[in-house]
Amino acid sequence: MMMSRGATRAARSVMGHVGPRFFSTATVRGGAANGSATGVVGASGLLGVNPFMGSERTTVAWIRFPVMGVRKESTVALGDKDEHPEKQAQTGGASGAAGGGGDDKAIVSYWGVEPAKVTKEDGTEWRWHCFRPWETYQADLSIDLKKHHAPVTFLDKVAYWTVKSLRYPTDVFFQRRYGCRAMMLETVAAVPGMVGGMLLHFQSLRRFEHSGGWIKTLLEEAENERMHLMTFMEVSKPRWYERALVVAVQGIFFNAYFLAYLASPKLAHRVVGYLEEEAIHSYTEFLKELDKGTIENVPAPAIAIDYWRMPPDSTLRDVVMVVRADEAHHRDVNHFASDIHYQGHELKSSPAPLGYH
Ligand SMILES: [Fe+2]
Ligand SMILES: [Fe+2]
Predict the structure, then answer these.
(1) Exposure check for the chain: N or C terminus, fewer CB within 10 A?
(2) pTM score
């Protein structure tokens, strides 16, 4: 017991002395807007290797204030922007949409976990906690949207007709409410990447072998789909029964896809490939409705403008265009993954298309 207390005291002493020094001696790249900010080794070490950061488009400073305090104070900080600049400086001024709540109670950071303050190249704050500037990209709109994998084998036909049969009830349920449809279907679209990535992760652990980058690729896909959801929920709000439907569908689809992937990854990836083909079709119909004027072409949500590096005057139509391009990339990745299995290989034997957007 005495030994334990002694060890704890020693650890606190080390944290108390080494921690602050470690997190405060490096200088902030590009000059942080906040005078109270101190740079960290992590900032230069982690971000220095990133080409986006290397081009000085953003600056990062780590503030000596509790991380939870910043996240929970975000909305308050936004509202106080003009009236209390000093408070803004202390909290890092994160936006409410970036993942905060309304609680302005500061939490003491005993663990040395520091909140990051990220600014854009023009010195304005980076609003989002859920993704960073170096995780954004410009969609490749030149991708061929018409590509289709013709189902030949028995498993291909199972995958194809499974997806086709799922289309009918969704058409009946959503009719032409494409905004709502997009939001709801993105809650499903973000499941396969997470399940596949998780299973490959565990497989890598069990077998003591590399994944060839496929874990990361599939998790990237899941995150990308989730960002589609974060975008569409800005233009369409779910009703209570739609939320209930999402809970039910997630419970069923997660388990079904989990079992399908365990049984046959080539079938699972083929199913996703066809799902993505249907998603492209749905977004094309969405665009037609926007062009006809039956759906109002509202300004693009701020999160979309930052995530896809879109011009500030972008509209919902532009957002649908980039989302549709993302779906085409998912289509290619998943059909490709299925093809690898069909050719008798495992995914790890072919380098994963990391960052393929
Ligand atoms: Fe999506
Ligand atoms: Fe997708």
Answers:
(1) N
(2) 0.73
